[in-house]
Amino acid sequence: MKNINWDNVQEATDFERIKPGGYIATILTVEDDPAREYLKMELDISEGEHVGYYSDLAASKNFWGLTLYRSYKESAQGFFKRFKNDVEKSNAGYTFNNDEKTLVHKQVGVILREEEYVANDGSVKTRIIISNTKPVSDIKAGKFKVPDLKKLDDKSVDPPSGFTVNPDDIPF
């Protein structure tokens, strides 16, 4: 092992997980995928007790945890319009002009919920995702409902098969 001056290393601390609920967030980055017709946005909490939560998470875990995808395909344009309207209502004087770069630094209300997923080791875990967006005024007024935990389908989790490979059965 290389020689490390441990006096200069800050000890890791426990990281308290954010709870499902309504939060005011700021859009930090926007990427357009024109071939697949969607925007990928990274957001962070910008008001309240969890300001900077996802920036801190990224600094400590090297992982950005609050990403929002919004499709603008013809079949999803109604959903995109709702998002666009939520951003416009949250930022006085702002009108979205189909230039995704103008969304950077804009605020929007987000509703965070828990969902189950299958981890790499096969276990079922939960994560926090954006369920929906709302105008900031709705979040401040408590005019939102946090959806219940989104559970996996029973079919999504396969039990271990117990399958083993006999090296004598491999033809090479």
Short description:
This protein has helices at 53-61, 77-90, 136-141, and strands spanning 21-33, 38-45, 67-71, 107-118, 124-134.
Low-pLDDT runs of 5+ residues are none
Q: H/E element string?
A: EEHEHEEH
Query: Structural class, from helix and strand content?
Result: alpha+beta
Q: What kind of assembly state do the chains in view correspond to? A: single chain
The overall strand count is 5
What is the CA-based Rg, rounded?
A: 21 Å
> Whole-Å distance between the termini?
39 Å
So how many helices? 3
- Biggest sheet strand line-up: 3-2-1-4-5
Number of domains: 1
Give average pLDDT, whole number: 89
Q: Tell me the β content.
A: 25-35%
> Biggest sheet, in brief?
5 strands, antiparallel
Q: Helix amount, in percent?
A: 10-25%
The shape, in one word, is globular
From the structure above, extract its key features:
DUF669 domain-containing protein, single chain, 172 residues, alpha+beta
How would you describe the overall organization of this protein?
This is DUF669 domain-containing protein. The relative contact order is 0.17. The protein has three helices and five strands; from the N terminus they run E-E-H-E-H-E-E-H. It has 172 residues and is of the alpha+beta class. The longest helix is centred in the middle third of the chain and has 14 residues. A hairpin with a 4-residue loop joins strand 1 and strand 2. The two termini are 39 Å apart. A five-stranded antiparallel beta sheet has the order 3-2-1-4-5. It is globular and about 55 Å long. The chain has one domain.
